[in-house]
Fold this sequence. Notes:
2 domains, 321 residues, seven-stranded mixed β-sheet, alpha/beta, Rossmann fold
Amino acid sequence: MPRAVAFTHPREAPICITLPDEPVGPGQVRVQVEACGLGVADFGFFQLDALPRQPLVPGLEAVGRVAEVGEGTALVPGMRVGLTPLASSCGVCRRCTGGLERWCEQAQFHGWHLDGFLSESVVVGARAVVPLEAGDDPAVLAPLFATGWTALSAVRAAGLQAGDRLGVVGLGGLGHLVVQCALADGLEVGAVDVDPTRQRLGLALGASPLAGKLDAVVVCTPSTQAIQLGVRSVARGGRVVLAAASPSVRFDLSLFDTVMRGVTLVPAFLGGRAELDEVLARSRSGAIVPRITRVPLDEVPARFWLLRDGGFEGRLVATMP
Ligand SMILES: [Zn+2]
């Protein structure tokens, strides 16, 4: 029976639990998880008055090895794979047929509607599984499958061209990957974070301090202050991409400023398959290298507060024994 870390009660920190062994059905695989990325969105469940399911195993992105395959899958036991959070969608609506399955009315996600990946082993549909080459460090690859994917799609959603100036607000797991994606696209990047460790990382990656009006801004931390700063920092007519989501955050903007300055708010969450393939190709070429802080699975409950308090570099990644 796999050990996992889960939220078991609203407003209580997650704890280690043991999950029942789930059978592997047709079209499914069992994956032995090696590493699972964690972020502020996962922390957000702690702040809700009611959990979307109880217990809720968080975790939207992971890397592991296929342990068992159901009928009708092309995957092979032993294969190294990445796990993405979209479990299912209707398949026939305009979003699904237009490459926007993640916004299907019936979309179901691991780590939200279904158990996530912060577990020694998970059973997932083959749709959530991306075959990988063996050999790379699973903990470094894990952040690519939701955070890195969202980072590239956020940069694309900004709609800029090489030489344009992109602002990045928040330089944690998501923001530091947005900086890398934007620089690789030939954009100039101005970036800011209230946490000195994260700000240093952004500058070390090649960003400048946030200053002046930017052609577009990507907000990478889920707070109303960050979104307000993004709207203040963007030039008239520019886009503010909201790339960080948390189930517990609301935001408040001046309607008059937003409309009269022609600011467009654009969401970014995951992306199209072509963007995921591009993120993985950039990772193989070394153009995108997630910075990570490792935490063994058993220590996640005790070190859970890092997600709120910061002071660490890059994405927090839980590693399984
Ligand atoms: Zn649909």
